[in-house]
Amino acid sequence: MFDYLIVGAGFAGSVLAERLASQLGKKILIIDTRSHIGGNAYDCYNEAGILIHRYGPHIFHTNSREVFEYLSQFTQWRSYEHRVLASVDGQLVPIPINLDTINRLYGLHLTSFQLEEFFASVAEPKERILTSEDVVVNKVGRELYEKFFRNYTRKQWDIDPSELDRSVTARVPTRTNRDNRYFTDTYQAMPLHGYTRMFENMLSHPNIKIMLQTDYREIVGTIPYREMIYTGPIDLFFDYRYGKLPYRSLEFQHETVNMPVHQPVAVVNYPNEHLYTRVTEFKYLTGQEHPKTSIVYEYPRAEGDPYYPVPRSENTALYKKYQALADATSGVHFVGRLATYKYYNMDQVVAQALTIYKKLRETENRRSPE
Ligand code: FAD
Ligand code: UDP
């Protein structure tokens, strides 16, 4: 008899498996349809011996000391600050848009103060910032919006930014200084030996059994367990009773090229050219030295593995209906990016899982006080 059946061995499932087993001595079965642990953060060495992220670039960053310290029990870190260039008007310029972006794009020599004035002169102030278009146009005006955001967003989401919640493009700030880091979080680092090694360390507890290449629906009636933690898509759990929640997918085209360096930074975004959105060169993320280099192209897709919940009001309304079903389903806890239909980064999923763990611990303690 397992105490918990955990569906999904990504961050959400693995954090809960680790906490419940190591802190409360619970017996866990963690199950995943894929042939590996780690969920979308899975990394592995390819045929050339280069460490790659199978499901696209995963850069760890957080402001949460609790999350960073928690994960530090399972990995050492390599300091890494992420930098991205965007291919615009035949140049590679920094994104997030900053002082250098504007000076290079327009051949200017503005100071930060002058850039603020420039943004103020081109911005289209909005009374209410509701959409992903509003966020950008309100700050930097329509021309820069069209150069950097409109087409990238249409490619990635197959929706015009004017129909997408503001939270999507709000992920990318605008700066008037020369800071060219993609993230400004307090903790920015990559697991020294990769994500998969970190997940192995989390799950290597005698109370945790792992079952791969198995859909939970294949075994749910045959393996006894007390409670379930579910981290797959919430609409799938309820057999799409209210219809499918939209997810955006990607096709990853991995390539290894026979030279040590392919591009000047880890990621180059292509808002206006090509069918792919961005190209990532993994050696920048991992620090690996190798005479060859591996890259990945991301092609947005409607069909395929569900990678991105699509933040817009009608989808949130549909999710709320599923959430109400989830709340009424006793003995099952819904956690993670797919089960709570939230465009969460890794650290947010870890934080959410740690919060659920604390709630479960309270319930367990009430059940059998020490
Ligand atoms: P997942 O990792 O998706 O794990 C869920 C698991 O459940 C999957 O392994 C799935 O196979 C399994 N599952 C689903 N249904 C079933 C079933 N029926 N039976 C059994 N198993 C099932 N975050 C960052 O912080 N930084 C980044 O740079 C970053 N880059 C990203 C790039 C891309 C292309 C994508 C798609 C995401 C990125 N993220 C990034 C987000 C990050 O991937 C997620 O926040 C995190 O992986 C979510 O963890 P999770 O456990 O909720 O879900
Ligand atoms: N975005 C854009 N141009 C860019 C970078 C981002 O239009 O050069 C928009 C796009 O809609 C994207 C969103 O901002 O989906 C969030 O970008 P982020 O890099 O955070 O995406 P993720 O890494 O989660 O795919």
Structural notes for this entry:
By secondary structure, this protein is of the alpha/beta class. It folds into two domains: 260 residues, Rossmann fold (3-Layer(aba) Sandwich), CATH 3.40.50; 76 residues, no CATH class. The protein contains eleven helices and 17 strands. The strands form four sheets. A seven-stranded mixed beta sheet has the order 8-7-13-14-15-12-16. A five-stranded parallel beta sheet has the order 10-2-1-11-17, with helices on one face. α1 packs parallel to α11. The structure holds flavin-adenine dinucleotide and uridine-5'-diphosphate (UDP).
Total E-strand runs: 17
- Provide the residue-averaged pLDDT: 97
Overall domain count: 2
* Number of continuous helical runs: 11
Helical residues, percent: 25-40%
Spans of at least 5 consecutive residues with low confidence: none
Secondary-structure element series: EHEEEEHEEEHHHEHEHEHEEEHEEHEH
Percentage of residues in DSSP E strands? 15-25%
The CATH C-level name of the largest domain is Alpha Beta
Strand arrangement across the biggest beta sheet: 8-7-13-14-15-12-16
Radius of gyration: 22 Å
Main β-sheet, in a few words? Answer: 7 strands, mixed
